[in-house]
Write a structure and sequence with these properties.
disordered C terminus; 437 residues; mainly alpha
């Protein structure tokens, strides 16, 4: 091997080649189908004579089991081989979407049927997500793991952006039923790819005391790290208010002030493009203070709600959405890297489940309260309130020393080893000196 070849190889992200490639390819396939299916399911409800409230019921039917089963899904994924959990969840999603598609194409879909099938899809997602996150984190190693995460997220976000555009076009041309059928095929293909994952590098699980014991162990891991639970608490608020602003107030502002759904779709597209740009940035940038850099990049998420409160024209709104999309990807890659280097491999899925649960648990409540809040205080005040909450909770998290001072490691370190503890204490000392990594 030449020196040039060796240099090029050293700059590549550290990956467990085959697993990383399979996971990335499967995520691209799934996102291409799922983003279009979200649009298709809404139009399927409307085509059966439903209204906006019915669309909300179908969406809520998916979210509720996702929240209910996430923690159990995380414990199961740390107890069983993760790839089997992922394949089983993909199979459930494939079947539920296929039945959904058949009912829509036959013109026989009823609201209760669509709610039940959406609930099955949410259940599959609850078991899939913790297993997938644990599997991805165990498939990369080395100091350039964050670059591998960034490239994975860039591929996933790009597929999601393309899937939403393609799905919207397909709904208009061939109808929602065929888009749902394509999503079912996508789940089948992704599940087949994930069945080839190699888990021989993962140590066998030690016999445990049962599911409840596993959940308690994951909870201790979660609450024992201040940087972990405080950021999850932060995002329980951030995700909820940003979700309410985007899902409820954004379309209303677009209807009343921006010219209709087209400009709002353009703004959401700009956000998606921003996430791809942020992931691309993180393939090159490796901030030393992982969580400090990531948390500072949560502040821009307050800008879209503020822009809607004014409201600004569509051009500046798209610019704001692009920047906020890029910023959240900086946080996302930094967060994944922090979990990868700090959480023991055998607890990754349970910790990820607590992370997911905390982040989405308040979303249904926030979207349900969005309408009454607007009626009580006015839309402008509600949007400024969303923006202020993002700023306040993010500033509060920066008061936690572990968030400011957790440092990227430049070499693999055993959890709890003297070197790991030294690196964290060194970061804390640097924090008191006011230096940024």
């Amino acid at each position: 091997m030449s020196a040039a070849d060796a240099s090029r190889r050293s700059r590549r992200p550290a990956r467990a080649g085959r697993n990383y490639t399979l996971l990335t390819a499967a995520a691209v396939v799934t996102n291409l189908g799922s983003q279009g299916a979200l649009i298709a399911s809404a139009f399927a409800v409307l085509e059966t004579g439903g209204d906006g409230g019915d669309v909300g019921l179908v969406a809520a039917a998916r979210t509720l089991p996702l929240v209910l089963f996430l923690l159990i899904g995380g414990a199961v994924a740390d107890r069983l081989p993760r790839h089997r959990v992922m394949v089983a969840a993909n199979a459930l999603n494939c079947v539920s979407q296929a039945v959904f598609a058949i009912l829509v194409l036959a013109g026989e879909a009823r609201l209760w049927q669509m709610m039940l099938l959406s609930a099955l899809g949410g259940t599959g997602q609850a078991f899939f997500s913790p297993a997938a996150e644990g599997m991805l984190m165990s498939s990369v190693s080395g100091e350039q793991a964050s670059r591998a995460f960034a490239m994975f997220r860039m591929a996933m976000q790009g597929a999601g952006l393309g899937g939403a555009a393609l799905g919207g076009a397909m709904v208009a041309v061939v109808g929602p039923g065929w888009v749902l059928a394509v999503d079912a095929v996508a789940f089948a293909v992704a599940g087949a790819l994930r069945s080839f994952l190699d888990v021989s590098h993962i140590p066998p699980r030690e016999p445990g005391g049962g599911l409840l014991s596993d959940l308690r162990e994951g909870w201790r891991e979660f609450v024992g790290r201040p940087w972990l639970w405080t950021i999850v608490a932060q995002f329980s608020v951030v995700v909820a208010v940003v979700g309410a602003a985007d899902a409820v107030y954004g379309p209303l502002v677009a209807r009343d002030s921006l010219g209709g759904p087209g400009p709002w779709g353009l703004a959401l597209g700009a956000f998606g493009a921003g996430t791809v740009g942020g992931a691309l940035l993180m393939t090159r940038w490796k901030p030393r203070r992982l969580l400090l850099a990531g948390t500072l990049c949560v502040f821009p998420l307050a800008a879209p709600a503020a822009a809607l409160a004014v409201p600004v024209p569509v051009g500046p709104l798209c610019a704001v959405m692009f920047v906020s999309g890029a910023a959240i990807e900086v946080f996302g890659v930094s967060w994944m890297t922090s979990l990868h280097q700090e959480i023991p491999e055998d607890k990754l899925s349970r910790v990820s489940a607590y992370d997911w649960f905390g982040s989405i648990a308040m979303v249904p409540l926030a979207t349900a309260l969005a309408g009454p809040t607007e009626a009580a205080f006015g839309r402008t005040a509600a949007l400024w309130g969303c923006s202020a909450l993002v700023v306040v909770v993010t500033a509060a998290v920066l008061c936690v020393p572990d968030v400011r001072n957790l440092t990227r490691r430049t070499k693999a370190v055993a959890h709890g080893s003297p070197v790991a503890e030294f690196e964290f204490r060194s970061a804390d000392a640097e924090g008191t000196a006011g230096r940024l990594g």
